Amino acid sequence: MEIWINPACSKCRSALTLLDAEGAEYTVRRYLEDVPTEDEIREVLARLGLEPWDITRTQEPAAKELDLKTWDRDAASRDRWVRALAEHPKLIQRPIITADDGSAVVARTEEAVRDVLER
Length: 119
Fold this sequence. Notes:
Strand order of the largest sheet: 2-1-3-4
Protein name: Arsenate reductase family protein
Radius of gyration: 14 Å
Distance between the termini: 11 Å
Helix content: 25-40%
Family: Belongs to the ArsC family.
InterPro entries: Arsenate_reductase, Arsenate_reductase-like, Thioredoxin-like_sf
Number of strands: 4
Keywords: Oxidoreductase
Number of helices: 5
Largest sheet: 4 strands, mixed
Number of domains: 2
Pfam families: ArsC
């Protein structure tokens, strides 16, 4: 499995601590340094079963600068959202774990991390 993290994020650190405690094998991706492409974001969204606006941190300064709250949330606007996430990776909700079974989860809670471990 792979986990997208921001090392400064307490939720990310908590997820890593739990993965380590459970002896999980995983790869860390510091997504602010190793920025996901638009295609990678689309793939993760498909695995999550979510839309780009569902994983967007709308309180980030970049979100406010882009005025994301006014953007449409529909199929026609999907690519615009994905592009914004690729251009401003701080907007991506974290941590995201992609599991070996092809699924993914936004792992902000212990329950979400455990759910991935049980797959």
